[in-house]
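Hi R.,

As promised on Friday, here is the backbone we talked about, encoded as structure tokens. Could you run it through your design pipeline when you get a chance and send me back a sequence?
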């Protein structure tokens, strides 16, 4: 008998990717077949992000495209993830062809929900909490990469920044038990993974109900102790994202200095350099507080790459506020920044604020800040020329079949001439050329 086939399309962040891996694991165990395209699938699931309006709209556009396909009417279409959690039953109104809407904490129930639809139920809505005793296990076969694995350590957010929808879509912070995280990393190491990313909305807010698994590890916070515990597994590379400035403790830097397999990269979202805007955002820190953390990172024994997120055009942002952000970027000398034009999310406090900027104003500021960062980034990348970097080779380059591509410990993309047999290996590359967002070199 032919297995029911399922296609999952992920639209969103690393947490969405991790959720898809978890869902795929549960579905395969339940006897479903996972396929790589929507056209051939019996079931099409969209695992969604709602952080920005554009990502949310993309979901409904994709649903429309699937409905126009030759198999329309024969496929079960579902929406999971953050859009499902926020919109709930309204998804059925926006997209009448959808049969199931499954929230961020109902992932493990997908096999049973799909089976109910196949047996004749027309629509199913599940926005409930996780079942008691659920585990976070993911099959290596479902990982997005055979070499790099995402390991969620904390779910949800308690910060309630005024622009952010995450506390509403992901719920309150819930940390995994450390022993469970360490055991997962150990399994990944035995399966041949070279790099793990500890992920969460705010990883350094990690506060498990029990510290089982952290005994014997020094550290000022549970997160810094977890970093040392994961480092002790011997996995070659460990990265973590995203960090919240208010919870970024000096001991994280000490752990990076102590443990060679903790990668020398920190992503620390600033969002703005203006104290007035930071108050409106309810970020809980001032620009001076942020800069103290940056100075500590810059003064580490190891050279740590620093990246950030910036929101341009927050309601009420003046030219003076914007220039404060420009000044912060100049001071921090970021290796890279992700610049976002403010996107209003219904239901957040910021949506009710006055002083909204026009799209043209936001675009002008975006371009101005992008120009400043380009200059900074060009100098930083050029400083790598003539140096040797450690690269985890991940794939053949999309631009040249003669090149392979991978990432450094400081999270920079490196391309170099090499054969596919190198994929999955950690090699040393001499950097010969610096581009805007990547490096090019020669295998040592």
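Update: got your reply. Pasting your designed sequence below so it's all in one thread:
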């Amino acid at each position: 008998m032919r297995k029911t086939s399922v296609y999952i399309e992920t639209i969103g962040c690393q947490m969405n990717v991790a959720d898809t891996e978890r869902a795929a694991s549960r579905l395969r165990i339940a006897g479903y077949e996972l396929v790589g395209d929507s056209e051939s699938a019996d079931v099409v699931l969209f695992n969604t992000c709602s952080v920005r309006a554009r990502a949310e709209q993309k979901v409904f556009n994709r649903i429309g495209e699937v409905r126009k396909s030759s198999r329309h009417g024969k496929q079960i279409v579902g929406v999971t993830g953050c859009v499902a959690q926020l919109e709930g039953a309204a998804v059925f109104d926006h997209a009448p062809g959808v049969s199931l809407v499954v929230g961020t904490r109902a992932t493990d129930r997908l096999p049973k929900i799909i089976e109910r639809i196949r047996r004749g139920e027309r629509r199913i809505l599940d926005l409930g909490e996780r079942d008691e005793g659920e585990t976070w296990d993911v099959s290596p076969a479902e990982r997005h990469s055979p070499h790099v694995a995402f390991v969620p350590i904390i779910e949800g957010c308690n910060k309630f920044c005024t622009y952010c929808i995450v506390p509403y879509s992901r719920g309150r912070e819930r940390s995994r038990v450390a022993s469970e995280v360490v055991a997962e990393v150990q399994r990944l190491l035995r399966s041949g993974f070279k790099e793990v990313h500890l992920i969460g909305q705010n990883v350094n807010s990690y506060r498990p109900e029990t510290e089982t698994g952290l005994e014997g590890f020094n550290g000022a916070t549970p997160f810094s102790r977890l970093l040392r515990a994961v480092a002790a597994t011997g996995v070659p590379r460990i990265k973590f994202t995203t960090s919240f400035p208010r919870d970024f403790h000096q001991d994280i830097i000490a752990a990076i200095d102590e443990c060679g397999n903790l990668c020398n990269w920190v992503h620390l979202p600033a969002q703005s350099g203006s104290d007035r805007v930071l108050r409106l955002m309810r970020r809980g820190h001032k620009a001076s507080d942020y800069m103290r953390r940056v100075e500590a990172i810059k003064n580490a024994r190891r050279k740590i790459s620093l990246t950030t997120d910036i929101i341009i055009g927050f309601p009420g942002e003046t030219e003076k506020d914007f220039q404060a952000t420009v000044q912060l970027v100049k001071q921090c000398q970021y290796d890279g920044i992700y610049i976002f034009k403010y996107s209003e999310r219904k239901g957040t406090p910021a949506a009710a604020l006055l002083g909204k900027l026009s799209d043209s104003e936001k675009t002008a500021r975006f371009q101005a800040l992008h120009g400043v960062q380009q200059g900074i980034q060009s100098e930083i990348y050029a400083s790598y020329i003539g140096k040797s970097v450690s690269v985890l080779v991940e794939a053949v380059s999309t631009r040249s079949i003669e090149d392979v591509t991978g990432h450094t410990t400081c999270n920079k993309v490196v391309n170099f001439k090499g054969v596919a047999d190198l994929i999955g290996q950690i090699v040393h590359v001499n950097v010969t050329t610096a581009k805007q967002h990547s490096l090019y070199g020669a295998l040592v």
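One thing I noticed while checking it: The chain has a mean pLDDT of 94.

Thanks again,
M.
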